[in-house]
């Protein structure tokens, strides 16, 4: 292991102070994290009046606009939304007997739950075993004080059993409703503390015989159809999605962790109406709960909701009883919550959709329009006829007398490869360089100097000059500021990697992989950026930053997921072109390119269909690529998927044979030599450039997506329609046949 010369404990302490305190060494972590300021109330500056119901057991109108009426039922504190023109109910916040005939005979707990706007989870202040308890706002023992405003209402709910109080604001808007739980409104007056709040648990809930589905952002997007729930796997269970990566630190290296969501949204379609719910604030600590009416459900209703977490948790190991070498304890560890509650406002926007837009395509269109209007979706203006390549440069041998950097592609060879594709007809290219630094792929970056074996500093200077002379190509130097491998790079496991609240490091089973603290990640970025700035024509590829957030629970230096997001956003906002791995919402405002974007889902048992929801939101704004074509088992199928999902054609290639990587930690490549793939890559690129992109480029957006019996129809805003046939027989559409495992482009200037 390398040692820094002359690096004493005192020097380490001084460096830590500089980094954490923001002293003369440059901006520190605390400079990036000013004290959070509570957001404004939805009724800021307005005077409310106490709600007086004429009939506490019936819905009465609170307010109205040109399209909707906001209704309120005082006895259970629930809202409903009516169509103003017809007076008919559109969406109910509480379950009624007309929807669920068994309501009257349900247990008190289920009845309270199904009629509640809020369901809280709490625990005793002294609990160490995770004995969480639930309480529901509609329970008659609770107190709900309601104020009425010109465009909505505010509830102050006191939960009788836990002594917890909080406020919920509900605002009627032109296209839906907005709900807000102010952080400063939460009070914990008893022996219990708040863990989570489920908002609108049964809003829009649908029976199994209705026509419609639940939409949720598992991977690229997924649907669970109401009328198919009876045929799902016998052991299927409700699904929980963690927004922006695993919510629990213990799950960061777990293969059984919850699937994750890149976008904080879900939706419900019922007949000819639908809505999209989007978390607008506080989603860093939120989950999406997907509950279809499956075999194990006691209550036969399909529903989705947000669950907002208010305290971080961590694992504590309990005393064990061992006899004859056998552990007799039923539980080896328990769960403890942090004492401090997360001071985050939580806000949700619910957008109503009707008619032709009442489907997942309409949900994507509405969300894209809002993100664009709010400046949360970058307009990268990358030409549609772009080829995406990852060129793997090298990795370190893991062990042995001949350990060292294994060069796979030199910087000079990068230029030659790019020239070959440009000469072969590629009009534009995006090229990500992986493993280019002096220690190769997998090392925590402590420098931004190129590996000498692939060309070093002079090689980078020459590539920068080449990039400046080749404006049709964008180059990205990939760096990973968040991950760490033991022995790979200059970092201290104890000081520079994240910890749980019990003081232990967050690591894998082998104790070899870690995550760098946000403070250290920022320090490493600043160090690397001094070198990266010397190559103005080369962009930066940020590995992992768009895939996950995480928290550091280190005592005295804790950083929340919300704070980590702000640090990632600071890194993302550096000048120049940026490629980002993953597509978490916070990355979309600055990214010039997205890579490793999923074109499938987690494969959970409740999923009926996979859809390109994420792609429909992003297409035409930021270019994106998925899995490399040379690493897929069926390139024809991959091509069709790229066409359906609007992906750039993407390949990960090398100059040398992948056999050279067998003694390294990089085992993703098994067929990657450029000389073997160049002709196939150019053939596919030429086909897409000729047959597809002339009709889907420019200002076109992906506005419609439908699938029936393995035939997919994708519609663009300029009128272009693409049919993709995944079946094994030809299909006739609009008087023209689409061959098996083929596609057909129709519409603007396409015959």
Please describe the structure with a list of short key phrases separated by commas or semicolons.
disordered N terminus; Immunoglobulin-like; single chain; seven-stranded mixed beta sheet; 13 helices; alpha+beta; twelve-stranded antiparallel beta sheet; 751 residues
Descriptive overview:
The chain has 13 helices and 44 strands. The strands form ten sheets. Strands 1, 8, 9, 10, 11, 12, 14, 15, 18, 19, 26 and 37 form a twelve-stranded antiparallel sheet that branches. The longest helix has 18 residues, at 674-691. With 751 residues, it is of the alpha+beta class. A hairpin with a 2-residue loop joins strand 18 (265-270) and strand 19 (273-281). Among the domains are: 49-203, no CATH class; 696-751, Sandwich (Immunoglobulin-like).
As a percent range, the share of strand residues is 25-35%
Rg over C-alpha atoms, rounded to the nearest angstrom = 27 Å
DSSP, total strands:
44
Number of helices: 13
Which oligomeric form is depicted?
single chain
| Overall residue-averaged pLDDT value | 90
> Any idea what the shape is?
globular
Amount of helix: 10-25%
Low confidence ranges:
1-27
Structural class: alpha+beta
Provide the fold topology.
Layout: H1 9-21, H2 29-32, E1 49-50, E2 60-64, E3 68-73, E4 78-83, E5 89-92, H3 108-114, E6 118-124, E7 133-136, E8 143-149, E9 152-158, E10 164-173, E11 176-181, E12 187-188, E13 192-199, E14 212-216, E15 222-225, E16 239-243, E17 260-261, E18 265-270, E19 273-281, E20 286-291, E21 303-309, E22 313-317, E23 322-323, E24 326-327, E25 333-337, E26 346-354, H4 360-373, E27 386-392, E28 394-396, E29 405-407, H5 411-423, E30 428-434, H6 456-469, E31 473-479, E32 483-485, H7 493-496, E33 513-515, H8 518-532, E34 538-542, H9 561-572, E35 578-581, E36 593-595, E37 609-610, H10 613-618, H11 635-645, E38 650-653, H12 674-691, H13 693-696, E39 702-708, E40 711-716, E41 721-725, E42 731-733, E43 736-738, E44 742-746
Parallel strand pairs: 16-17, 27-30, 27-38, 30-31, 31-34, 34-35, 35-36
Antiparallel strand pairs: 1-8, 2-3, 3-4, 4-5, 6-7, 6-13, 8-9, 9-10, 10-11, 10-12, 11-26, 13-21, 14-15, 14-18, 15-37, 16-20, 18-19, 19-26, 20-21, 22-25, 23-24, 28-29, 32-33, 39-40, 40-41, 41-44, 42-43
Helix pairs in contact: 5-6, 8-9
């Amino acid at each position: 292991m390398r040692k820094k010369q002359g690096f004493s404990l005192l020097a380490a302490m001084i460096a830590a102070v500089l980094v954490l305190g923001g002293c003369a060494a440059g901006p520190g972590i605390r400079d990036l994290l000013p004290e959070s300021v509570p957001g404004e109330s939805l009724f800021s500056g307005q005077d409310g009046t106490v709600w007086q119901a004429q009939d506490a057991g019936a819905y009465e109108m609170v307010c109205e606009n040109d399209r909707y009426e906001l209704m309120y039922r005082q006895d259970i504190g629930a809202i409903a939304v009516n169509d103003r023109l017809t007076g008919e109910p559109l969406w109910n916040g509480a379950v009624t007997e007309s929807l669920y005939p068994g309501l009257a005979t349900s247990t008190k707990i289920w009845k309270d739950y199904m009629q509640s706007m809020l369901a809280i989870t709490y625990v005793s202040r002294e609990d160490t075993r995770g004995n969480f308890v639930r309480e529901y706002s509609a329970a008659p023992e609770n107190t709900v004080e309601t104020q009425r405003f010109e465009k909505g209402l505010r509830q102050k709910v006191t939960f009788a059993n836990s002594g917890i109080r909080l406020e919920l604001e509900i605002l009627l808007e032109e296209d839906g409703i907005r709900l807000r739980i102010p952080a400063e409104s939460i009070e914990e007056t008893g022996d219990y503390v708040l863990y989570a709040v489920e908002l609108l648990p049964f809003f829009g809930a649908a029976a199994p015989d209705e026509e419609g589905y639940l939409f949720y952002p598992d991977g690229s997007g997924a649907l669970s159809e109401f009328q198919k729930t009876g045929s799902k796997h016998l052991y299927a269970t409700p699904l929980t999605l963690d927004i922006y990566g695993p919510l629990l630190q213990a799950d960061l290296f777990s293969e059984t962790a919850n699937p994750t969501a890149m976008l904080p949204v879900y939706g419900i379609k019922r007949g000819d109406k639908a809505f999209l719910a989007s978390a607008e604030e506080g989603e860093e600590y939120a989950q999406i709960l997907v509950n279809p009416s499956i075999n194990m459900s006691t209550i036969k209703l399909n529903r989705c909701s947000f669950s907002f977490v208010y305290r971080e948790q961590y694992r504590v190991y309990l005393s064990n009883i061992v006899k004859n070498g056998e552990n007799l304890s039923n539980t080896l560890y328990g769960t403890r919550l942090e004492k401090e509650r997360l001071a985050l406002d939580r806000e949700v926007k619910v957008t109503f959709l009707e008619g032709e837009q009442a489907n997942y395509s309409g949900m994507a269109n509405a969300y894209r329009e809002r993100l664009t209007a709010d400046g949360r979706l970058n307009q990268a203006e990358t030409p549609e006829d772009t080829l995406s390549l990852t060129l793997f440069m090298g990795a370190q041998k893991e062990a042995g007398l001949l350990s060292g950097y294994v060069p796979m592609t030199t910087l000079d060879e990068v230029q030659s490869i790019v020239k070959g594709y440009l000469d072969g007809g590629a009009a534009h290219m995006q090229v990500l360089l992986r493993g280019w630094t002096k220690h190769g792929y997998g090392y925590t970056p402590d420098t931004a100097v190129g590996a000498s074996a692939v060309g070093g500093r002079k090689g980078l200077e020459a590539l920068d000059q080449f990039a400046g002379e080749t404006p049709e190509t964008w180059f990205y130097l990939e760096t990973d500021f968040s991950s760490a491998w033991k022995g790979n790079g200059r970092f201290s496991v104890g000081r520079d990697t994240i910890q749980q609240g019990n003081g232990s490091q967050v690591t894998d089973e082998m104790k070899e992989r870690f995550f760098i603290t946000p403070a250290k990640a920022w320090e490493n970025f600043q160090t690397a950026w001094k070198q990266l700035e010397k190559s103005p024509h080369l962009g930066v590829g940020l590995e992992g930053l768009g895939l996950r957030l995480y928290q550091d629970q280190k005592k005295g230096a804790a950083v929340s997921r919300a704070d980590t997001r702000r640090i990632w956003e600071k890194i993302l906002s550096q000048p120049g072109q940026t490629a980002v791995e993953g597509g978490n919402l916070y990355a979309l405002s600055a990214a010039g390119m997205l890579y490793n974007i999923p074109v499938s889902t987690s494969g959970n048992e409740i999923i009926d269909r996979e859809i390109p929801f994420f792609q429909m939101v992003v297409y035409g704004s930021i270019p994106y690529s998925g899995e490399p074509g040379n690493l897929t088992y069926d390139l024809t199928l991959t091509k069709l998927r790229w066409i359906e999902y609007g992906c750039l054609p993407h390949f990960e290639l090398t100059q040398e044979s992948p056999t050279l990587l067998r003694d390294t930690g990089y085992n993703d490549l098994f067929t990657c030599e450029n000389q073997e793939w160049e002709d196939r890559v150019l053939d596919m690129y030429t086909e897409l450039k000729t047959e597809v992109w002339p009709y889907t480029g420019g200002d076109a957006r992906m506005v419609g997506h439908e699938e029936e019996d393995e035939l997919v129809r994708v519609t663009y805003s300029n009128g272009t329609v693409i049919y993709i046939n995944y079946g094994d027989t030809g299909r006739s559409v609009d008087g023209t046949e689409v061959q098996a495992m083929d596609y057909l482009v129709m519409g603007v200037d396409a015959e």
